[in-house]
Design goal:
single chain; alpha+beta; seven-stranded antiparallel sheet; seven-stranded mixed sheet; 22 helices; 23 strands; globular
Length: 634
């Protein structure tokens, strides 16, 4: 995993093909020193919380010389670790020197690494022999082959270096790249299976590529240029010092209609740099490209052929359930294979209790399935941490179900050591932490977002208590770097209570439309926020329910086999997952009702009392959707 960022300054950005409503707007080319809306040091600090192993930066300068476009590259790298600072510079010489420069544009790449793959240290940004630059935040689980002892970012930069300099649309017309059997950057990125966000400079075409995977499983924020700050910026996270101001200001971005940052829409983008017609400055035209993999395009559309049953619903058969179980097991396996870097850590430290993987754990059906499947995929010599957060001690619903869940896991997997990490907090004591999490959830900005963000951030931190055999609790901090999270299960299997309301008012078609809507906006409403809150602890969230094969398999199953909302809560919602749980031997968990983390941990109740006076007042105000303008610090 990596925290990545890019700041582009000194370029007039043309957004006309991306945002037709501002087709006439070209932002002015402004030098970096003329504005200070975002602190670069603050940005680096935020990135390094995500990638604590190494922090690096490289600068690229684009210049116009003698009325033609010329690239003069000057790259500076700063690599930071816990005990080392190394600085090195690279100068690419040009034949005619640097006299007569009309304009200089600056591209500042930043990357902070949490290395989970590869036996050799990896320092981002990566630069190949051709001058291509990559900062990459993701995991490759398919599409490109990554050996067990290799790093996927290094594999990707080599593959990108072989791509042609045209777009996929250009390849459809006359293009010599087809004869050379080269593929385009969009074609390559469309083959990747797994979560990713990236920024890539292709030197020979003077083109910048950036984007995030089709479901938005990795955060990537964008600041489109405005009159107030004409830089184009991309970042995995917003710096905390710059964000609190935005919660109070309510100022609207002239281009996007929201505050400074926004979630970058899923997809692949490019900026091609050329001299302006007057040769006075550089212009960068932003374009968005289509996914080229037909399967990926189908998954994004999220259509299923069997939505509404014809006549009486036939009895369920075990075949779809077994198919879902198999594909979920494969998904968990892909996300929990211990790469060589982990084995080296355990060998070098000689810590017998090294725990590489944890589960965000409520004891509900989603986290119970993930824990049971993790037990089947992970070497039995490893412990498994189950991270549970509560704002009401042992009385919170999620704490009660988590304790019951551990007993059930111990019954089906008695040889595994399960560590239920009980993370207890009082919201009134989290003043500084609340402000920090506000910067992480941004641009999400409601009390519901904040409550979920705080719960996830604390759970991912893993700082709590475990119960020993004598029933005495002792302090414990989970050091697991990989966290399995159940995101996507409710959206795909009708877990939310409002789905029942949609079903009653609109039938099967109404239910399908609401589930489709949620899946197509999950990147904006959930995944970016959750990734930022979890990764801030130097941990990587992985979402087995959002694996491409899992999504495909669930869409192939008739909707009435996935959910039957004529049945009671805890039985008909997420029907197919409840049947999967039974196949795994999880009898009690198979019938637990859905509880969102903000309610199961009881942070919503405490937030309502703190910010609205009571739960009743909060409900009357629809507190969950209320925008935070001036958060209480009482």
């Amino acid at each position: 995993m990596c925290g990545i960022a890019l700041i582009i300054s000194g370029v007039r950005i043309d957004l006309s093909s991306l945002l037709p409503d501002v087709a006439s707007q070209l932002t002015e080319a402004v030098k970096p020193a003329e504005h200070s809306k975002i602190s670069v040091e603050g940005l680096k600090e935020a990135l390094q919380r995500r990638g604590p192993d190494h922090l690096g930066s490289k600068k690229l300068f684009l210049q116009i010389k003698n009325e033609s476009f010329l690239n003069v590259e000057q790259v500076t790298e700063m690599v930071m670790s816990t005990d080392t600072i190394i600085t090195s510079s690279y100068d690419l010489k040009q034949d005619n020197g640097i006299d007569g420069i009309n304009s200089v544009a600056e591209l500042d790449f930043m990357g902070a690494e949490l290395q989970l793959r590869g036996i050799s240290p990896v320092f981002q940004p990566l630069v190949d022999a051709s001058g291509n630059i990559l900062v990459y935040n993701g995991e490759i689980f398919g599409g490109l082959y990554v050996d067990n002892d290799c790093n996927d970012a290094e594999i990707l930069v080599r593959a990108l270096g072989k791509c042609c300099s045209c777009t996929y649309q250009e390849r459809k017309s006359a293009c010599c790249c087809v004869e050379k059997e080269e593929i385009s950057v969009p074609q390559l990125l469309s083959t990747i299976r797994g979560p990713w966000g990236l920024i890539y400079w292709q030197d020979r075409s003077k083109t910048l590529w950036f984007g995030r995977d089709a479901f938005g499983r990795r955060s990537l924020l964008v600041h489109w240029p405005t009159l107030d700050d004409p830089r184009l910026m991309l970042s995995s996270v917003s710096p905390s010092s710059d964000t609190n101001e935005n919660f109070d200001s309510g100022a609207e971005d002239l281009v996007s209609g929201i505050n400074f940052w926004e979630e970058l829409s899923c997809g692949i983008y490019s900026i091609c740099f050329n001299a302006s017609e007057t040769k006075e400055c550089l212009v960068g035209e932003v374009k968005k490209h289509e996914w080229t993999d037909p399967l990926l395009s189908e998954l994004i559309k999220w259509e299923r052929s069997d939505v509404e049953p014809k006549g009486i619903i036939p009895p369920s058969v075990s075949l779809p359930v077994q198919k879902v179980l198999n594909v979920l097991r494969e998904s968990v396996m892909r996300r929990t294979i211990l790469n060589t870097v982990f084995q080296e850590i355990k060998h070098e430290t000689r810590v017998e209790t090294f725990v590489p993987i944890a589960v965000l754990f409520s004891g509900g059906i989603d986290s119970m399935i993930l824990a049971a499947l993790l037990d089947q995929c992970l070497d039995p010599s490893y412990d498994i941490d189950l991270l549970n957060v509560s704002f009401d001690g042992q009385s919170a619903p999620d704490r009660i179900s988590s304790r019951a869940g551990v007993k059930e896991l111990q019954r089906i997997a008695p040889s595994r050591r399960w560590n239920l990490v009980e993370i207890d907090h009082e919201l009134s004591n989290l003043i500084c932490e609340t402000k920090h999490v506000m910067s992480l959830i941004y641009p999400s900005n409601t009390y519901m977002d904040l409550n979920i963000g705080i719960a996830l951030w604390l759970a991912a931190g893993g700082d709590g208590w475990v119960e020993k055999d004598n029933h005495h609790r002792v302090k414990y901090k989970s050091e697991a770097k990989i966290l399995l999270v159940g995101s996507g299960a409710d959206e795909q299997c009708a877990g939310y209570s409002r789905y029942r309301t949609k079903y009653r008012s609109g039938g099967w078609l109404g239910l399908h439309k609401e589930m489709k809507l949620d899946m197509q906006r999950i990147w904006k409403r959930n995944l970016g926020r959750d990734d930022r809150c979890i990764s801030d602890n130097g941990k990587e969230a992985r979402f087995p329910f959002l694996d491409e094969d899992v999504i495909k398999t669930l869409l192939e199953i008739p909707l009435w086999e996935v959910a039957d909302l004529e049945q009671a809560a805890g039985k008909g919602d997420k029907k197919i997952l409840r049947e999967v749980a039974q196949l795994l031997g999880l009898e009690a968990a198979a019938f637990l009702p859905k509880r969102a983390i903000q309610f199961g941990s009881r942070i919503a109740r405490e937030s309502n009392r703190k910010n609205f006076g009571s739960n009743r007042a909060a409900n009357q105000a629809s507190a969950g959707s209320v925008v935070i303008h001036n958060p209480s610090t009482k």
